[in-house]
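Re: your question from the hallway

Yes, I did run it. Sequences:
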Amino acid sequence: MIRLRLLALLLAAQALATPAVTSPAGAEEIFVSNERDNTVSVIDGTSLEVVRTFPVGRRPRGVTFSRDGRRLYVCASDSDAVQVIDPDTGRLLHNLPSGEDPEQFALAPDDRTLFIANEENATTTVVDAETRKVLAQIDVGIEPEGMAVSPDGKIAITTSETTNMVHWIDVPSLKAVDATAVEQRPRHAEFSRDGTKLWVSSEIGGSVAVIDVATRQVIETIRFEIKGIAGDRIQPVGITLTRDGRFAFVALGPSDRVAVIDAKTFKVLNYILVGRRVWHLALLPDESRMLTTNGVSGDVTVIDVGTQKAIKSIKVGRFPWGAAVRPSGSDRSAGAAP
Amino acid sequence: MRAGGERGHGATGRHAASARAAACLALLAGLLLPALPAAAAEAPLAIHYLERRIERPSPLNNEDPIPDDEGAAGTELGLADSNATGRFLGLSFALTRTLVEPGADLAEAFGKLGAPRFVVVNAPAEDVLALADLPAAKDTVFLNVGAPDTRLRDRDCRARLLHVRPSRAMLTDALMQFLVFKRWGRILLVSGTEPADALYAEALKASARKFGARIVGEARFDVHGADIRDSALREFALVTRSPDHDVVAVADEAGAFGTNLVYNTAAPRPVVGTQGLSPAAWGRAVEAWAAVQLQGRFRKLAGRAMRPIDYAGWLAVHAIGTAAAKLKSLDPAAIQTLMLSPRFEVGGFKGRSLSFRPWNGQLRQPLFLLWPGAVVAAAPVEGFLHKRTELDTLGLDEPESACRAFGGRAG
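Structure:
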């Protein structure tokens, strides 16, 4: 997400310099992993239609891009591999060693170090995407899932879903140096753009923790309440933050809602109804629109960020899980993890 | 078929066909994980698993035996999980396993544990009560993983006895919610001859009353030691000839005949209950809410599928580990206090927080309606509402329970 924001900033800067900015592809493409179909659906950011679908490894979940947008990384959980794919053709370029059952990952700002959560064996695998070598396997808590790298590239985060902790990995030494306890089933972690805060969703706890990165202490626990929805249906998963630091969006799982949060006061402002069992979120580079993956209804909801309303639903494959926006030029930074 | 449902830990009248060696009175096996680096100098918190072995009938199908380490294997995984979490907090846990053969002295085995603070007990109801009432057990919290007897959550409850296993009432409530939801409310009940079968049948009747279903006919079936596999085709047609009904409910906890009743009924009706479509806390088909992770870890550890009693064993130890992690302490008194308080919550791969009911110590939890191939539905079934939590539509609610042992909380 940090990189997405950088990308968007670059885009904005470009737009100011040359009003008629065009990208080679004309528009963004959003890549959605379909967990049950073993495919990736590609959505055109302008027409908001699925333009192609290609097969990938088994049980694809996390997806992200290299900075130049030429390589798509896919966590193929049941194939025990991170696949590197040509996003134009869908062709598999090669597999990266990933450790067992890779679920989510995060690409460091150096555009080559991948931090991969291995859900089944309680480790985080660190892989150099260039040399295709494993740099380290770091022991973390049970069922690691959420992954994030700080904007300065110095800290990597793994959340462990059964241990209920945020693990802090020192990137230079590749060692887990600390752990912060959070509420039940932490699923996703997201750094604020300035790197001072870490947002972590707890699926069963039903909350989002905002952690001060300097002290590694939880400074705020955000809770949700939706009229007519039982509290235990509100299960926060994906988080995305706008680059101006104003809003945070949180996917609330089987409540079929996305929460809009004031990222400064941590107050919940709104709930947007989307498809069924919403997992993850992806903001388009200009942040005018956001896409949600809805696992049970098998579709993607397009949200107009300005009006905070759902404007379209796009049928994709079965159990869409992750989404990543493809950077469309070589001068741009990388896309985002889901 | 039996893998799907929960059998009772009924003690009495079992057929004597145990292939188990019965040589020793009490077997003590210390199961300590290798010391973990981050674990501080503090001694690990001792958790004990205490099991009364029972003589079980031979399985109807020899390919489907009840594993020797049922329950115990679950506690082992709970220990591994708790230590994996604990090492980040400098906490560690140790587990001992004590097996008491049929007829051997349970109190004596308990005495050998020293003054245990946490005992996961897998034993019939009368043994559970005898243990809880021992003077030496006054500082012990017991976690019942074996006895589904509703009375232990009712008039025979004990203040320091928590029930991880669902009661029979919870199981049959879950089933009845499903039947009512489907409008399959006319039930023909076929019970076996064991005391546990009678308890299951009683629970079915109470659940039918609670949710507005109807028992339209009742039959008892006695296998008489015969091999039902040879006679099922004709015998069950006679037993299930009855007024109009939507389903045949079977109460056969030991699995003496129920598996063969499926598809052998007089009318083409589904079989539900201890066999057929079974309510259970866990089963092989369960995979939602990351359950597949727990299933995978268990299979790796035990070399077989996780059964409901294994799940209860895992959850019992996991609950102790969760309380310790929450407190960042191994102080047994503090852990006990937290576990017995209404604010304690624990995860169980069921999509929501689980907690102990403050009026009778029963763990609230969603249950599954299973046949061996799939999870047919989860309970509480949609539409069954409760002012506190829908989970309290399953089993004895506060006004229904005669339990008064939990600090007068019961109404």
